[in-house]
Amino acid sequence: MISEMSRTPLLNLALISMFIGTSVTATHTNRPRLSILTEKPDYVPLTPDFVFYNYTQTLDHFNYKPESYMTFQQRYIVNSKYWGGSNTSSPIFVYMGAEADVTFQVSVSGFFEILASQFHGLLVYIEHRYYGTSMPFGSKEEAYKDSNNLGFFSSEQALADYAQIILNLKQNLSATHCPVIVVGGSYGGSKFYLWVYTCLFKLTKLKFG
Ligand SMILES: *[C@@H]1O[C@H](CO)[C@@H](O)[C@H](O)[C@H]1NC(C)=O
Ligand SMILES: *[C@@H]1O[C@H](CO)[C@@H](O)[C@H](O)[C@H]1NC(C)=O
Ligand SMILES: *[C@@H]1O[C@H](CO)[C@@H](O)[C@H](O)[C@H]1NC(C)=O
């Protein structure tokens, strides 16, 4: 929840916006949101350096309806090959997944590994809700079935998902002092840049690090 985040001041967050072409658009009459792509990049096998985890994610971060408290398994991938460890305050690079299976995004983000190797960083890739295996309501068919279920498919919810996972992971790894550098491509970078800046910085006193 956002309220929990505001009690955690030690999330140093920097953003690098990348612009890689995708099909996501927003018009001035619409809030920017993902369209459901008919052909999405699918699962891509990865080397054993990439370890898969699930986080039990809250369906709805902003309301208090009964269904808001439903959860789903959100996938994230960690590569600790280059990490200097929490004792050295080595950075955590977080790739904010966008409109694809997260394994596909790992496979096209080689630059991210170069960053980590240069800075002894931990690599974390978080899958966007409603993609890959991070599917609310048990299956893609159910999740995409109707507007009730699709109502939780928004960029605001996705942003809160990422914040939850990052905070949880930092605690888990005793890495609360490690700076977090958030990277995203296109939708994942540019749109989130705006929201993180406007929503989270004000609420949580995050700072660029
Ligand atoms: C994560 O959750 C998905 C969907 O529930 C499941 O298919 C997958 O096996 C889980 N992965 C891990 C590493 O637990
Ligand atoms: C990190 O520091 C703590 C406290 O000084 C110590 O107990 C722990 O062994 C260290 N961990 C590593 C991996 O060096
Ligand atoms: C976080 O901690 C849980 C145990 O509470 C563990 O099962 C999980 O694998 C940890 N995640 C990471 C990325 O270390």
TrEMBL record:
<keyword id="KW-0378">Hydrolase</keyword>
<keyword id="KW-0121">Carboxypeptidase</keyword>
<keyword id="KW-0325">Glycoprotein</keyword>
<dbReference type="GO" id="GO:0006508">
    <property type="term" value="P:proteolysis"/>
</dbReference>
<dbReference type="GO" id="GO:0004185">
    <property type="term" value="F:serine-type carboxypeptidase activity"/>
</dbReference>
<dbReference type="InterPro" id="IPR008758">
    <property type="entry name" value="Peptidase_S28"/>
</dbReference>
<feature type="signal peptide">
    <location>
        <begin position="1"/>
        <end position="26"/>
    </location>
</feature>
<comment type="similarity">
    <text>Belongs to the peptidase S28 family.</text>
</comment>
<keyword id="KW-0732">Signal</keyword>
<keyword id="KW-0645">Protease</keyword>
<dbReference type="InterPro" id="IPR029058">
    <property type="entry name" value="AB_hydrolase_fold"/>
</dbReference>
<dbReference type="Pfam" id="PF05577">
    <property type="entry name" value="Peptidase_S28"/>
</dbReference>
<protein>
    <submittedName>
        <fullName>Lysosomal Pro-Xaa carboxypeptidase</fullName>
        <ecNumber>3.4.16.2</ecNumber>
    </submittedName>
</protein>
